[in-house]
Design a protein that fits this description.
binds flavin mononucleotide; about 375 residues; about 25% strand; Rubredoxin-O_OxRdtase; oxidoreductase activity, acting on NAD(P)H; Rossmann fold; electron transfer activity; single chain; metal ion binding; Metallo-beta-lactamase, Chain A; seven-stranded mixed sheet; 12 helices
Length: about 375
């Protein structure tokens, strides 16, 4: 459903329901929305543009919202093309329109658009305000809440935070279910912004000084109620604390023996009353594996040995976790090999590059198939990880 914000602030974003991969790597089965907004006052302000995939629909929404008026300012929160693709086009269509950004925005802008906007640039700094009539925009820098030039805008009269990629969520808005916000927002957060927890914490500190009634992100639904819920989740996620108590059992198996052992292990963990999430690493999208790994406080990685290394899907998952700054967790290891099992040693080498990872003992070694000795090792590992 198209978000309703207020009489003066209109949503002009567009749903993209036939995109295959967001950022060329994240499957988005429910699509994604490119959010953009117009503020109608004595001056007219457009808050960001949209992806090139959505240009025509966005221009139609813009035209309807403007209802014959012109644009005085375009606020550029973030230069990534899923929001910024139409800056050049808009600047050409509205030659008197000024562009609002920060120093870094205007350093990068010419890399994307080969038009000279020098005499149309309004460079804003931390906390600066711009009155546009009844509404006053206040700008706060949010460097590395994805990219270095990111900034957020707080509209003082209606208490709206335009939060850039912060508080974003995968999923088109047409069928959005706000009651299930956390699942796809979590996958979005850890895969898109997760590496930059410290920067998100800095932004949350700034946001805490503002009286916020509405959050307008650049993807996903506009948030109007229970803001504390969303902000608390962001605080948990960005401080790398686990959101839930439980053990993710993630397995990568070629011929099924490691899978069978992982399933047995999961059953045994469940019997202790501990929550378990079982994931087949070879058949689950990596972005979901990453989401689960960050969501829970413990994880057991089970992998076959493969050509003197780790079976590739597990190795790939570990490299993704490394790239997302995975930390502060307890990990158990289970390996399988028919002649020289080394998967656990190799997995540990990758885990050793991450901060504050505790590898629980014992490390379980399977020689081809599970047997009583393996079950005994499992019992010992579960006892260690559920103490
Ligand atoms: C392509 C390939 C390479 C393998 N390389 C090794 C290896 O380097 N060392 C080893 O001990 N086992 C190796 N194995 C054997 C498997 O790790 C072993 O059979 C294991 O039990 C497979 O577990 P799974 O049934 O869960 O796939 C390899 C198997 C395949 C198919």
């Amino acid at each position: 459903m198209k978000p309703e914000i207020s009489n003066d602030i209109l949503y002009i974003g567009v749903d993209d329901t036939d995109i295959d991969l967001f950022e060329s790597q994240y499957p988005v089965p429910d699509g994604v929305s490119y959010n953009s907004y117009v503020i109608l006052d004595e001056k007219v302000v457009v808050m960001d543009t949209v992806d090139a995939r959505a240009t025509d629909a966005w221009l139609a929404n813009l035209k309807a919202a403007l209802n014959g008026r012109t644009i005085d300012y375009l606020v550029i929160s973030h230069l990534e093309p899923d929001h910024a693709a139409n800056i050049g086009r808009l600047a050409e269509m509205y030659p008197d329109m000024k562009l609002i950004g920060n120093q870094k925005t205007f350093t990068m802008l010419p890399q994307f658009f080969h038009i000279d906007t020098t005499d149309r640039q309004v460079v804003v700094t931390e906390g600066e305000t711009l009155s546009i009539g009844k509404h006053t925009l206040q700008f706060f820098m949010a460097p590395m809440v994805h990219w270095p030039e990111v900034m957020v805008t707080y509209e003082q009269s209606e208490k709206i935070l335009f939060s850039a990629d912060g508080f974003g969520k995968f999923g088109a808005l047409a069928n959005d279910d706000i009651t299930d916000w956390a699942c796809e927002a979590r996958r979005y957060y850890f895969n898109i912004v997760g590496k930059y927890g410290t920067s998100v914490q800095a932004l949350l500190k700034k946001a805490a000084t503002l009286d916020i009634a509405t959050i307008c992100p650049l993807h996903g639904p506009v948030l109007k109620e229970n803001l504390g819920y969303y902000i608390n989740l962001y605080d948990t996620w960005s401080s790398y604390r686990a959101e839930k108590s439980g053990i993710v059992v993630a397995y990568a198996s070629i011929h099924g023996n490691t899978a069978a052992a992982a399933k047995k292990l999961a059953e045994m963990i469940e019997q202790t009353g501990t929550k378990v999430e079982l994931c087949d690493v070879t058949r689950t999208m990596v972005s979901e594996l990453i989401e689960s790994a960050f969501e829970y406080d413990r994880m057991i990685l089970a992998a076959a040995t493969y050509d003197g290394g780790i079976f590739s899907p597990m190795e790939d998952f570990l490299h993704h976790l490394q790239a997302k700054g995975f930390k502060n967790r307890t990990i158990g290891l289970m390996e399988n090999g028919s002649w020289a099992p080394v998967a656990a040693k190799k997995m540990r080498e990758i885990l050793d590059t991450m901060q504050n990872i505790t590898v629980a003992e014992p490390v379980i070694t399977i020689k081809s198939t599970m047997n009583d000795a393996v079950i005994a090792q499992m019992e010992a590992l579960i006892s260690e990880m559920t103490r």
